[in-house]
Amino acid sequence: MPKYIITGGAGFIGSHLVEHLVKQNKKVVVIDNLSTGRLENIREFKKKIKFIDSDISKKGKWIKEFKGKYYVFHLAALADIVPSIQNPTEYFNSNVQGTLNLLEACRNGKILKFLYSASSSCYGIPKRFPTKESQKIDPMYPYALTKKMAEDLIIHWSKIYKIPYISLRLFNVYGTRSRTSGTYGAMFGVFLAQKLSKKPFTIVGSGLQTRDFTYVSDVVNAFIIAHKSNISNEIFNVGSGQTISVKKITELLGGDRIFIKKRPGEPDCTFADISKIKKKLGWRPKIKIEKGIKILLKNIKYWNNAPIWTPKKINIATKAWFKFLK
Predict the structure, then answer these.
(1) Exposed, middle or buried by CB within 10 Å (0-12, 13-18, 19+), for 260?
(2) Catalytic amino acids?
(3) H-assigned helices in the chain
(4) Are 75 and 117 in contact (CB under 8 A)?
(5) In terms of domains, do 167 and 191 share one?
(6) How many CB atoms are closer than 10 A to CB 258?
(7) pLDDT tens, residue order, the chain (326 aa)
(8) Same structural domain for residues 185 and 199?
(9) Which residue among 121, 129, 176, 217 has its CA within the 20 to 30 Å range from the CA of 19?
(10) Residues of the domain holding 245
(11) 143 contact partners, CB below 8 Å, separation of at least 6
(12) pTM
């Protein structure tokens, strides 16, 4: 039986992937330094997996796991825009050096496929919608750049060292266990904490900007289908194939709202063209946004201890955003 090595397996998407594979009785190894992941996310099935508390940006004992036959699902990364502007070296070390170390480890044993959690932020502010994989790459901030640099490393290592890969460029993933911190990239975490504390939702700009929100179970299904397929060395968008405004999201969540200053470097629309993944992998999203939000509200207690963001706190936290992304 091959091993399933998941970096970032205690995180949002990673923990859902771990849960799916455990239910399929797969041999799962999770590597996570818990910088953003939470043991709570995998506690229910921790006895059925091997958990390694380790940072892949540093070489260590985790490399010993890369022997025999195995799949790699690479989800470990630092996210968020502002921290990446403030600490670009930290993001480079985590997202680029970490990926390089992982790829070097994959030269041992027999890797069956390398699945990468790429980011749609690599497109920057797209000019065409829905956005195809062939759209111009234009990262607007260090997080987006480091995620794309990691993807480029994977493509090159595949070419030279024959490591089969699939890179999935994810669009606005949401769902249970989503991150409880961050002023960007974890919008639902911010909103749900605000709802619990009976604070108004902080809407950036007019709220008319639209996003392609993709439910986490659909994303996990994309990874599963991708790893099983005979296709490799391809890049696919993973999105819902629809868009919805942030303002409409707050209406579905229910609650008061206030509007804060629009931020530079953010697109007015994210909208994935998913025709390629539909055609080549046969993957289709199943969860509509209305159903996804109902699931979130049913599990809202998860965000009880999440930080509560107010306009004042956001203004302080995003100063670097406005300073550098004019």
Answers:
(1) middle
(2) 143
(3) 12-23, 81-86, 88-91, 98-105, 142-161, 187-196, 216-228, 246-253, 275-281, 289-298, 311-317, 319-324
(4) yes
(5) no
(6) 12
(7) 999 999 999 999 999 999 999 999 999 999 999 999 999 999 999 999 999 999 999 999 999 999 999 999 999 999 989 999 999 999 999 999 999 999 999 999 999 999 999 999 999 999 999 999 999 999 999 999 999 999 999 999 999 999 999 999 999 999 999 987 665 557 999 999 999 999 999 999 999 999 999 999 999 999 999 999 999 999 999 999 999 999 999 999 999 999 999 989 889 999 999 999 999 999 999 999 999 999 999 999 999 988 899 999 998 888 989 999 87
(8) yes
(9) 121
(10) 179-212+240-269+287-321
(11) 78, 79, 80, 81, 83, 84, 91, 95, 119, 121
(12) 0.97
Answer yes or no: do 196 and 144 share one domain: no
* Residues 119, 140: Cα–Cα separation, whole Å: 12
Distance CA 126, CA 132 (A): 10
Domains held by the chain: number: 2
Q: Please state, in angstroms and rounded to a whole number, the distance separating the CA atoms of residues 304 and 197.
A: 9
- Residue 43's identity, in one-letter code, is R
Round to whole Å and give the CA distance between 47 and 30: 12
CATH for 189? 3.90.25.10
Residue 281 lies in a domain: no
Does 107 reside within a domain? yes
- Statement to judge: residues 199 and 231 lie in one domain: no
Strands 210-211 and 244-245: antiparallel
The amino acid at 312: K
